[in-house]
Amino acid sequence: MKNVKVELTVEELLLMTTLASDQLFRREFIDPKMPGYKGDPKEVALGKDLVARLRLIIRQVSGAPAGPPQRRAPSQLSRNSNGVPNAV
Predict the structure, then answer these.
(1) Beta-bridge mates of residue 85
(2) Rounded to whole angstroms, what are the CA distances from 86 to 15, 51, 58, 72, 74?
(3) Which helix (H) or strand (E) holds 10?
(4) Helices 41-62 and 10-25, interaxial angle, to 10°?
(5) Alpha-carbon span 64 to 57, nearest angstrom
(6) What local confidence, expressed as pLDDT, does residue 77 receive?
(7) pLDDT of residue 78
(8) Which of 27, 34, 35, 59 shows the greatest Cβ crowding within 10 Å of its Cβ?
(9) How far apart are CA 3 and CA 15, in angstroms?
(10) Which residues contact 39 (CB under 8 A, 6 or more apart)?
(11) CA 68, CA 31: separation in Å to the nearest integer?
């Protein structure tokens, strides 16, 4: 496979990563519900790996720690006296 080099700003790379992640979500969860859809699980897996690599590059360039990627935002709920977040 041939490699291609592209120069992007961090903001452009972040935008591309976000768009790719959104498209992968659509391919994995929304498109399969459409009549006649024929997906390729290998392509989705490859896309997820690519998004993870791009996010790692963004963290390295921006100086953020290169730990495991965050799956979701930290809870904004305040904790009560027993350490469990308050729920609504």
Answers:
(1) 79
(2) 34, 33, 34, 18, 14
(3) helix 10-25
(4) 150
(5) 10
(6) 56
(7) 57
(8) 27
(9) 21
(10) 27, 31, 32
(11) 28
Return the SS3 of 40: coil
Report DSSP letters for 54-68, one per residue. HHHHHHHHHT---SS
Digit-by-digit pLDDT tens for the chain (88 residues) are 899 999 999 999 999 999 999 999 999 999 999 999 999 999 999 999 999 999 999 999 988 764 555 555 555 555 566 666 655 5
State the Cα–Cα distance between residues 11 and 41, nearest whole angstrom: 29
CA dihedral 32→36→38→39, nearest 10 degrees, is -20
Residue found by looking up tokens 């897996």 in the block: 45
- The overall pTM is greater than 0.70: no
Q: Which residues pair with 10 in a beta bridge?
A: none
* Residue with tokens 């996010």, as numbered in its chain: 55
Tokens of 86: 């308050």
Structure-token match 């791009």, residue found = 54
